[in-house]
Amino acid sequence: MPLKNINIYCDESCHLENDREAVMVLGGIYCDESDVRRVSGAIRGIKDRHGVSPEFEIKWTKVSPGALSFYREIVAFFLNDPSVRFRGVLIPDKSILDHKAYEQTHDDWYYKMYYYMLRYVFSAPHAYSVYIDIKDTQGAQKTRNLHDVLCNSIHDFDHQTIRKVQQIRSHESSLLQLADLLIGAIAYENREMVGSPAKLQLIDDLKSGLGDKILTRTSSFGATKFNLLRWQPNGDAA
């Protein structure tokens, strides 16, 4: 088996402990490092066809009726390009977490969720670079901690498998922006929101391409294009 260098672009929604949002989603878009330039170029091409600025940042919060045709083509690109895959973890209700019972902090639990998300992607003997959207001023230390946690969890003590975990700004990576879009769709569906017809159309496009329950249930292990873990506090998937 030829060795591959794989990039994973990760984002999260409502990850803070006291943000008054029950649903939390972590997710990552991943592909071979050798495909990143081609994929980024294809997304720039979609922007060009729709008269969208190359600097425009793809985000779930920006989905609107006026931009719907653009976003539908972005979703279609994800569905049809076999080199681009998604892995996510859905926490349906983080408000019921009892960190004291498990002798952990919210940050400890956050790192654990990242491990549950990424362990599905990791596969020896390949090497991985993990890129995470910058969220706050504490991000650099949290990123170093996450790198250590991930490496220790798979006994990668010399960091040969997980080469780096690095912060980047979302405007620097169209793949990170694509992760934001898919995470937003998962969160919207699980909050049972119906206020935006444009967002509901994108969700319908994803369901048509991947399966009706794809955004709410744990995927089969073999679902490599789009794989979601619905996590419960007892550690079980639902």
Provide structural commentary:
The protein is of the alpha/beta class and 238 residues long. 36% of the residues lie in helices and 18% in strands. The protein has a 6-stranded mixed sheet with strand order 5-4-1-2-3-6. The longest helix is centred in the last third of the chain and has 17 residues, at 174-190.
Give short descriptive properties of this protein.
238 residues, alpha/beta, 6-stranded mixed beta sheet, globular
Oligomer: single chain
> What characterizes the major β-sheet?
6 strands, mixed
Query: Strands of the biggest beta sheet: in what spatial order?
Result: 5-4-1-2-3-6
Which structural category fits the helices and strands? alpha/beta
* Uncertain stretches of 5 or more adjacent residues: none
N to C succession of SSEs: EEHHEHEHEHHE
The total of helices stands at 6
Note the gap between the termini: 34 Å
Please give the radius of gyration in angstroms.
17 Å
Global outline? globular
Q: What is the mean pLDDT?
A: 90
Strand content: 15-25%
What is the helix fraction of residues, given as a range? 25-40%
Number of strands: 6
